[in-house]
Amino acid sequence: MSLWVDQYRPRSLEELHYHHELSNRLRSLASSGDFPHMLFYGPSGAGKKTRITCTLKKLFGPGVEKLKIDQRIFLSPSKRKLEVNIVQSNFHIEITPSEAGNYDRVVIQELLKEIAQTQQVDLNAKQRFKVVIINEADSLSRDAQAALRRTMEKYMSNMRIILCANSTSRLIAPIKSRCLLMRVAAPNAEDMQTVMQHVSKRVGFDLPPDVALKIIEDSGGNLRKAILCLEALKMQSPDLSGALTIAKPDWETYCHKVADLIISEQSPARVMEVRQKFYELLSHCIPPATILKTVADRVVERVDDAIKADVMHWAAIYEVRMRIGNKKIYHLEAWVVKVMSLYKHFFYGMDLTEFD
Amino acid sequence: MASFFKPQPQTAKSTPKHVVDPALQPWVEKYRPKTIDDVSAQDHTVAVLRKTLSSTNLPHMLFYGPPGTGKTSTILALARQLFGPDNFRNRVLELNASDERGITIVRDKIKNFARQTPRAQTVSSDGKEYPCPPYKIIILDEADSMTQDAQGALRRIMETYARITRFCLVCNYVTRIIEPLASRCSKFRFTPLDHSSSSSRLAHIASEEDIQIDDSVISALISTSAGDLRRAITYLQSAHRLSSSSEPPTLITPQDIQEIAGVVPDVVIHRFVQTLGVEVGTDMQVDVENKPGNAGFNRIRTEVREIIREGYSASQILLQVHDIVVSHPTLNAKQKSSCAIIFAEADKALCDGADEELWILEVALRVHKAVT
Q1: Where are the alpha helices (DSSP H) in chain A?
Q2: What residues does each domain of chain A span?
Q3: One GO biological process from the UniProt record (chain B) (predicted)?
Q4: Is the pLDDT of residue B294 over 70?
Q5: Cβ–Cβ of B234/A173 closer than 8 Å?
Q6: What is A19-183's CATH number?
Q7: Contacts of residue A129 in chain B, CB cutoff 8 Å?
Q8: B310–A167: do the CB atoms touch at under 8 Å?
Q9: Taking a contact as any Cβ pair under 8 Å apart, which residues of chain B between 117 and 176 contact chain A?
């Protein structure tokens, strides 16, 4: 038995619940035979992937649902072996080049050229071209993006590329100008309500509106999270009544604990304690940017209005340093120390300008 | 059993597979200039190149300029005019960033190609005469993504085979080409297209494709694409696809273009900017709670979350807020310049891959502080 998220995922463009205008566009594009390269972007859990698979189905028919998973090995210029997982059907292929880290360019060059230079072999296929889906396109390196540029133009007759990204900021302009941009916004509360009602109806129970509202508020526009949450609640108490508490993930409570530590005392000993906790979080593979954001959000809730802006300011600064730098923990700690000193100085009413 | 041997009805013997249906071709390729006289704007460059066509003497060339200004188109058109369709294949080598261009390729492929002496052939199959000068052209597209080493290896090759080979480097940023290479080439700068030449080109394509568009759409195309003709043409084609495939076919509106280009709608941006305490155009009705100046931290944060949830790209938001602030009528110079610093920092951070929500919030908070 699979999760509700997968089980009740819409399979065709007609089943989609929200962004009807977008679905109409996709439908008309897919049936016109003149299909461009596309770039889907939007926050996570908004339904980008669902829309892509629905579009593919519209393009090629049910054949795209027969997936096979493959592992390909590429050789980097320095003869290192790179293993990349590939999901493919007869009509499309799906890759996540960022798996190959720095060598994503090699993957893009070799794989795309190979696909682009062979034509569709299946004569019964609805379309003459194959589709390449590139996930996490915003984490592609500059080189890999540059490698895409001319390939996208040259092999237009054999191949279409669908990029899937969280934001377009990190994509270079030449790529953006070659794609049709498709913005998938997060669903609003009403849309989420309908989807959740739909899911619960399919499962066969009634969803009380106040529970739905609570889940929606907690999920922050992430529909996947909302539905997972719904399923978890249902498991917890089958009749969905009484005082329901939406269980926060462990790491989130842990982050909140860190924030509380920072607020309650500001001393070197406390910094050491916080460091322990950060190491714990990092060793459980929580992305450092997420840690920083969650802790900062919590800290901001608890401090005075006057220093809220400053806390966020330093969070932003250290976040970008973390990206450029190598060792994440330094920057996390630096931020903690900064916040502690801000907080302390605020209490003793000292002027801080000389310490910047 | 007998039915098995019955002649099968001929099922869809389709047309030759290799021909691309012109209707499906991207317009960018379809309307690539065929001769250098077709190249829009870039008068200076075209004038110089036309002279080289008649004298058939060509220097090494370095084309640079922002994307979509016609660099690749110009050199391809020039090569085509010089050699004609027959010789084009064996006289021109085009390498771009999608090909491996490390130092080994420079040493082997480019050197081997540069070394060959071209065969003379004057009469072309289509009856026209082409100048067909006694040299070959190597086009290195997107040359700014070549490594320093590879560029270094090119230096001597360019000189040694100068008699029989000309190089044309095409790049966006001339500063990324090493100095010794740049000094061996005559440089041509491609400027962003001005309003009139882009609009005439777009109108030409629209009439060829039989689309009805009015001037407002063309100016929307030009303003969203900022001098990048390729982007404008792509947008036009996408908009046409969408409008023609809907039922019933509708006319293209400027709003369609904005949506395709990923521009944040003015309403959203204005509300956002107002929350930050910047007064915008008086033609919008300002409701009481949106009165600028009274926004606290929490309001700004909810506003930022809202806008990020809508999925707009941070750099686009930044760009549009910047446009509003910089051309704002009542903010004073000091406020504007401190805002400009913030925008610059945020842009750098976003380029480095920073978290979008954090940085939009940061920009919002600091702009709010600067203007109030």
Answers
A1: 4-7, 20-32, 48-60, 104-117, 142-154, 173-178, 189-203, 209-219, 223-236, 250-264, 268-283, 288-302, 305-324, 328-348
A2: 19-183, 189-236, 250-355
A3: DNA repair
A4: no
A5: no
A6: 3.40.50.300
A7: none
A8: no
A9: 141-142, 145
